[in-house]
Design brief:
The protein has 4 helices and 12 strands, in the order αββββαββαββαββββ. It is an alpha+beta fold. It has one domain: Oxidoreductase, molybdopterin-binding domain (Sulfite Oxidase, Chain A, domain 2).
Length: 228
């Protein structure tokens, strides 16, 4: 895919999207366009477009053993749920076109993700009515927190492909959460589970010990850090 412009007319945008649709495999997998793609100005304040994809994470890249890998949904659900990687891949797929904005001020526009929507994943359980937040659990004990409403955005998914290719391990393979409308630290790599919560709880980067990043992380209002 050609790198998109951060500003262009609605006609140019529609032409780009039509070309993308024609280039995709005709395999019945739906395409979701993140609402931010339709903005006349796609670059949030104080961000710079990059054509590269910087690698940023805490700790080492984990080993992946599909025989041992499990994904869990637990917390405020009627009945916990667990599956293997093979079972996860058999869930209905979706493609999402969205932008990525890192809190370190780079933005990568026009990413095509493929995986399973967060909505489809949560349909595997019955969420209790008091649940308002999620804590996504990942390898090495890493976590990130999100309001349930943000987590269930139409453009949010657990992905294993990016721009038609499998994610590389340093970008989150075998499974990465993708939340295009929040800063990229919320798009946690190496996801292994979802915990449903009634109250918000800081994840790894949101904790004061690891930087005190914002509990939500909206790039358009520059929610970079928590207030003490």
């Amino acid at each position: 895919m050609n790198a998109p412009n951060s500003t262009h007319s609605s006609a140019e945008r529609e032409q780009e999207l039509a070309q993308l649709q024609q280039a995709l495999p005709q395999d019945g997998v739906p395409l979701v366009i993140s609402p931010d793609v339709y903005r006349s100005q796609r670059l949030p304040p104080r961000q710079v477009v990059t054509r590269k994809w910087p690698v940023l994470h805490a700790g080492s890249v984990p080993e992946f053993d599909p025989r041992q890998w499990r994904f869990r949904i637990f917390g405020l659900v009627e009945q916990p749920w667990e599956c293997t990687y093979e079972e996860f891949l058999r869930l209905p797929r979706v493609r999402v076109l969205g932008d990525m904005h890192c809190v370190t001020r780079w933005s990568k526009l026009g990413n095509l993700w493929e995986g399973v929507s967060t909505r489809t994943v949560l349909e595997q359980v019955r969420v209790l009515p008091q649940a308002r937040y999620v804590l996504v659990h990942c390898e090495h004990g890493f976590t990130t927190n999100l309001p349930l409403e943000d987590f269930l955005g139409e453009d949010c998914l657990f992905a294993w492909k990016h721009n038609g290719e499998l994610l590389t391990p340093d970008h989150g393979y075998p499974l990465r959460l993708v939340v295009p409308r929040l800063y990229a630290w919320k798009s946690a790599k190496w996801a292994r589970g979802i915990e449903l919560l009634a109250e918000d709880r800081p994840g790894f980067w949101e904790s004061w010990e690891n930087g005190g990043y914002h509990m939500r992380g909206d790039p358009w209002t520059e929610q970079r850090f928590r207030e003490r």
